[in-house]
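New to this. Look over this protein:
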Amino acid sequence: MEITPTCWNWKGTIASDGYGRFQDGERYTVAHRVSFEIFKRKIEKPKVIDHLCRNRACVNPEHLEEVTHKINS
């Protein structure tokens, strides 16, 4: 991870959609969701995580907000 004055940029694999990804055992997961759950709380279904900074590679929990899919669109 690269910590800048604003974002924590994921330095591992970045998928074509711009999100940081890594393999968690047998499956791939997105880094920002894991960061949210480590630093804040478990994500309620069916909510999604919105990047307030609009940087899809950012895993800074202060930049992540749990919202509905409709709000995130």
Observations:
- The beta strands are 2-3, 8-9, 13-14, 20-24, 27-30, 48-51, 64-67.
- The chain has two helices and seven strands.
- Helices lie at 31-39, 69-72.
- The longest strand covers residues 20-24.
